[in-house]
Amino acid sequence: MQRQTQPVTVGSGSENDAREHMKRPKEQGMTPAKGESSTKLKSLIRKPSVSHEATEERLARGKAQEDLTLPRLITESASVKASSSDHPDTFSYNKFKGCLLKPPLGRDGGQTSDPTTNERREKVKEMMKFAWDNYKRYAWGKNELRPLTKNGHIGNMFGGLRGASIIDSLDTLYIMGLMEEYNDAKEWVQTSLDLNSNGEASLFEVNIRYVGGLLSAYYLTGEEFYKKKVVELGEKLLPAFNTPTGIPRGVINLGSGTSWSWGWASAGSSILAEFGTLHLEFVHLSELSRNPIYTEKVMNIRKVLNKIEKPHGLYPNFLSPVSGNWVQHHVSIGGLGDSFYEYLIKSYLMSDKSDDDAKKMYYGALEAIEANLVQKSPGGLTYMAEWRGGILDHKMGHLACFSGGMIGIGADDGEPEKRQHYLDLAAEITHTCHESYTRSATKLGPEAFRFDSGGEATATRLNDRYYILRPEVIESYMYMWRLTHDPKYREWGWEAVQALEQHCRVESGFSGIRDVYTLTASHDNMQQSFFLSETLKYLYLLFSDDDLLSLEDWVFNTEAHPLPIIRRSCLEDPAPQDKTVSE
Ligand code: DMJ
């Protein structure tokens, strides 16, 4: 990432400090796209339930279908999948109409039979409660907590939307059984989440945090107001797609619908990881709103990407939304590229392995990445380098460490040899990312580590030494644990818990640190909302049984918000009348 032109913490294009760099169109000398008028969507109202228990019971018994004119909410576990003898050859999301799923959460809330694992899980729950209580006390309704100065941070990444930490926490609180806290969060969404903001927002960030968070809250609880809110918000994002190619711009004014590209992105380009990280949420928006427009928008992105020539089969990070051509040849599995790849394989998985296009694109991209980016260091560590027009930069960002988990869940069960190959690659990358943690004094990993100048898996540049409570390494531990049950992943997760407690926990919350290589802590005074949504959720799942948010039933969006897999049976029978309901 070029520091002089874009913020250091840019993850998938725009997070964190990026918000401070958002520029208005006239400052960029760009003509904003006129927002298309928003579509009035039919709201589908069902009686809201009042408590977690009541909702669970109602859902478990299939009583959610009180009004048969409304979409059906079906509780179906992987083990009671309806048989699918004649699923369609050509995959089409539009056929999903009329079939919503609410898979089970897991028995006993995912508690394991191992006392040590349970203690560890309780510890993570305590960390969540501590982070949440301090947010509530000092920053309620703001986007994030500033734990040192004990106040809230708003920033301008979410276009005037507030409560990012609340939206990002809903599902984590819910699965941890922190019901008092969850109910406070829920009440805030009902009474205070104001979507009528007029600010400039990152399309990507609003989508992964707000749309993703509200969708998950809806699917987990069945509370109807989440659905209304998320559909209302989804409508406000549509004008960003009003470009000559249909590739959305990165920034949108949620009030006027005008949109423009990031000031730091080359020549008015859109960012691969931003426009490529909408698919999962938009398919569910179509599902909930009964409006195919969301799915059409993201399918069109695919079409554009499929048409365009790819250098060595690789997808560069910058694309012009006007011409549909690549603007630069920088390729990265870390920031600016990362979650595009993640959403390809997860689109396939979320479609109950029906979306063959997504699978093809994912494997095509992964093969090109393996051929061009994957490297082995002299010390035997496998890593993903970055590619700049054919020249390798031997650097791996913390963000790129999600790829261990991604390659793991993408290891196809069709061909045993291929599967083993990808599982091995996933394990090697996760091992390298763990090394980036163990080689620091704090046992937390730097923002980026390098494999040059004699160093391996360590940050050799001063400005790469910070850690902002990011989840990616722990995310890969969680997936690798689920896939292999190798106890080392739980041990590595526990090492991270201890390091977080020792170096990031302060009197009033958790904070990032400026240098993972020194024990004299310098805190950055920010409790990122993704710490609540991702880091702590993945840790909690790591110390839970596999049936808590089973990977057979759910996919996690890139902010760790679980979305249900849409079963093939939904394609075959758009309005099933007599599905067996079972938890
Ligand atoms: C999160 O917002 C998401 O995981 C995103 O895809 C990348 N960056 C952050 C966490 O580091």
UniProtKB/TrEMBL annotation:
Residues 53-64 have a biased composition (Basic and acidic residues). Pathway: Protein modification; protein glycosylation. It catalyses: N(4)-(alpha-D-Man-(1->2)-alpha-D-Man-(1->2)-alpha-D-Man-(1->3)-[alpha-D-Man-(1->3)-[alpha-D-Man-(1->2)-alpha-D-Man-(1->6)]-alpha-D-Man-(1->6)]-beta-D-Man-(1->4)-beta-D-GlcNAc-(1->4)-beta-D-GlcNAc)-L-asparaginyl-[protein] (N-glucan mannose isomer 8A1,2,3B1,3) + 3 H2O = N(4)-(alpha-D-Man-(1->3)-[alpha-D-Man-(1->3)-[alpha-D-Man-(1->6)]-alpha-D-Man-(1->6)]-beta-D-Man-(1->4)-beta-D-GlcNAc-(1->4)-beta-D-GlcNAc)-L-asparaginyl-[protein] (N-glucan mannose isomer 5A1,2) + 3 beta-D-mannose; N(4)-(alpha-D-Man-(1->2)-alpha-D-Man-(1->2)-alpha-D-Man-(1->3)-[alpha-D-Man-(1->2)-alpha-D-Man-(1->3)-[alpha-D-Man-(1->2)-alpha-D-Man-(1->6)]-alpha-D-Man-(1->6)]-beta-D-Man-(1->4)-beta-D-GlcNAc-(1->4)-beta-D-GlcNAc)-L-asparaginyl-[protein] (N-glucan mannose isomer 9A1,2,3B1,2,3) + 4 H2O = N(4)-(alpha-D-Man-(1->3)-[alpha-D-Man-(1->3)-[alpha-D-Man-(1->6)]-alpha-D-Man-(1->6)]-beta-D-Man-(1->4)-beta-D-GlcNAc-(1->4)-beta-D-GlcNAc)-L-asparaginyl-[protein] (N-glucan mannose isomer 5A1,2) + 4 beta-D-mannose. Its EC number is 3.2.1.-. It is a single-pass type II membrane protein. GO terms for biological process: carbohydrate metabolic process. Gene3D superfamilies: 1.50.10.10. One of its GO terms (molecular function) is mannosyl-oligosaccharide 1,2-alpha-mannosidase activity. Ca(2+) binds at residue 558. Its cofactor is Ca(2+). It comes from the Eukaryota. It is found in: Endomembrane system. GO terms for cellular component: endoplasmic reticulum; extracellular exosome; Golgi membrane. Disulfide bonds join 401-433. Pfam families: Glyco_hydro_47. Keywords: Calcium, Disulfide bond, Glycosidase, Hydrolase, Membrane, Metal-binding, Signal-anchor, Transmembrane. Residues 1-15 have a biased composition (Polar residues). Residues 1-64 are annotated as: Disordered. The active site is at residues 205, 338, 447, 472. Its main location: membrane. Involved in the maturation of Asn-linked oligosaccharides. Progressively trim alpha-1,2-linked mannose residues from Man(9)GlcNAc(2) to produce Man(5)GlcNAc(2). Belongs to the glycosyl hydrolase 47 family. PANTHER family: MANNOSYL-OLIGOSACCHARIDE 1,2-ALPHA-MANNOSIDASE IC, MANNOSYL-OLIGOSACCHARIDE ALPHA-1,2-MANNOSIDASE-RELATED. This is alpha-1,2-Mannosidase. The lineage of its organism: Eukaryota, Metazoa, Chordata, Craniata, Vertebrata.
